[in-house]
Amino acid sequence: MATTAQTAADGGQKAPFPPFQTETYASQLVSLLIAFVALYLIVSRIALPRVGKTIDDRQAAIEGDLAAAQKLKDESDNALKAYESELAAARSRAQAIGAETREKLNAASEAERKALEDKLSVKLAEAEKTIASTRETAMSNVHGIAAEAATAIVQRLTGVVPDGKAVSSAVDASLKG
Amino acid sequence: MAADPIQQFALKKIFTIGHIGGQEIAFTNSSAYMFLSVAVISLLMLGTGRQLIPGRMQSVAELSYEFVASTIRSTAGSEGMKFFPLVFSLFMFICISNVIGVIPYTFTVSSHLIVTFGLAVLVFLIVVFYGFYKNGLKFFKLFVPSGVPLYILPLVVVVEVISFFLKPVSHSVRLFANMLAGHIALKVFASFVGMLGAIGFIGWVGAVLPLGLTVALTALELLVAFLQAYVFTILTCIYLNDAIHPGH
Q1: Of A64, B43, B180, B247, whose CB has the highest number of CB atoms within 10 Å?
Q2: Gap from B213 CA to chain A (nearest CA, Å)
Q3: Residue B45 and residue B209: Cα distance in Å, rounded?
Q4: Interface A:B, Cβ pairs < 8 A
Q5: Does B189 score more than 80 pLDDT?
Q6: How far apart are the first and last CA of chain B?
Q7: Mean model confidence pLDDT for chain B
Q8: What is the distance, to the nearest Å, from the Cα of residue A12 to the centroid of all Cα atoms in its chain?
Q9: Which residues in chain B are contacts of A17 at CB distance < 8 A?
């Protein structure tokens, strides 16, 4: 029997409660079946793989970018480390060169100083020797002059020319005196 | 506008598809809204671009994808992802048709018990068939909770069996009753506005309250529309989890 009462309330009759009208159930179930199967096919065959792939692609892109950024960061870190170690090496090398040069210069100036001192001390010794001989000569001259002077004084005072030997010994004694 | 709050649920025949066993199969307004929901979901999921940086609608599509996926993973585990297309279809179908139903003058597909019961029975049958297919006779462990003393075990088993077979009923009635009651309440308050407005100036003043309530109820219905779809989905996931891992 084809039921024609699909509509609930036409006219002012006391309408049955539409959700409990059993004669509409078959129509609704058929529609639901068709609609839901269609939806299921669209969703499972096309929509979900598509959206899922988009999300996965995005995730992969983000991860790839992060990995690339990490790699670049590591590279720059390594470059910085290399730069710092090179700088430290260069600094220590510079210090070594400085120390070496200083030592060399010190040694050279020390040697020069020593040579100069030696030369000077030789000259000093020579000079001292000259002074000593000059002084001796001067002293012997003093003896002669003193003896002559003493002879002359004694002659003037006494009118007698004293004995040369006596005068000489007297001068010696007073020079020593 | 008819003041009868039941009228909004009436099915109106648009044309006849055919007859099955003498029963007329008609394309009704309900059918139209079912196909409209399918069309809206397809448009949302397929017509919104696949950019690396998503636009608004693409974000909605991806958010619903990830929302359903995480719901399944958290309730049924990663094995439940086998049923992702099914659960996603259920969630989107119920959610979108409910949301369309909140729009005034539209029809709410899930306000008919036979529709929600059809969906619940679909889930129930999948649970039963997949449960036996995957676990064989071990699926009966579902009715025998472990750690129950022997002398009350028969009683517990009887309760478990009854509750198992009542699942599709509670599953479907929950959604149906929520949508039906919400729409009736909405219609009742909205018809107060018309009735009071007909009185005259004092009626206009008095109509402010039901009008405000109608607005607030519409917002609430929007929440319920989503929430009931979510509840239906999460219960589906829990039942599927029973099928995947029987034995409590």
Answers
A1: B180
A2: 25
A3: 40
A4: 158
A5: yes
A6: 53
A7: 89
A8: 100
A9: 6, 9
